[in-house]
Design a protein that fits this description.
- This protein is α+β, with helices and mostly antiparallel strands and 164 residues long.
- The chain has helices spanning 2-23, 40-44, and strands spanning 26-38, 45-58, 63-76, 88-100, 105-117, 123-135, 138-148, 152-162.
- Helix content is 16%, strand content 62%.
- It has an eight-stranded antiparallel barrel with strand order 1-2-3-4-5-6-7-8.
- The chain starts with a helix and ends with a strand.
Length: 164
């Protein structure tokens, strides 16, 4: 009797997970992004590029939570004396909330920490509002992101990914 009960519980769990997958309440996928520096960063660094892995979890109607981890790099320009400025490289980890305005259009607010690699060290606080569209698994977003640590690093970003 105990084995039949365990088998029934396991079957119900599998069916539950399968139904959640059908409803697409959770998705995971890779992304690429480009960051176009603004302010002081635009005077010292070039366009940044990054890659990562993002996840979405739908909660109640229209609302969800998001998370991502990636790698971002802004190449350094040359200063007035023709010296090369070091690149800014970081591993941003973001968590956020997402609200679906209409079937494919959403707004998102993310926050987190960007841990610098290379010459710079430490972590910066991230704040990134954005707007995007998601059609089937394709997700494209425009955002403004700022990294706050002893001043701000800001950039406009375009992010494209595919969620499974």
């Amino acid at each position: 009797m105990k084995n039949k009960f365990s088998a029934l519980i396991a079957l119900l769990l599998i069916c539950s997970l399968a139904s959640h997958a059908q409803l697409k309440r959770f998705s995971l996928g890779p992304y690429v992004e480009a960051g176009f520096p603004v302010g002081d960063l635009s005077k010292t660094h070039n366009t940044g590029y990054g890659v990562g892995l993002g996840a979405d979890i739908k909660l109640i109607k229209g609302f969800g939570v998001t998370g991502s981890v990636g790698y971002m790099r802004f190449g350094g320009q040359r200063d007035a004396l023709n010296n090369k400025i070091s690149a800014v490289s970081a591993v941003p980890v973001r968590l956020g909330i997402k609200y679906q305005l209409v079937s494919i259009l959403y707004v998102k607010l993310e926050s987190g920490a960007s841990t610098y690699t290379g010459d710079d060290s430490g972590a910066a606080f991230i704040l990134a509002p954005g707007v995007g569209i998601r059609v089937l698994g394709l997700d494209v977003m425009a955002k403004y992101e700022t990294w706050i640590k002893n001043g701000n690093i800001g950039f406009f970003g375009l992010k494209a990914g595919y969620n499974f």
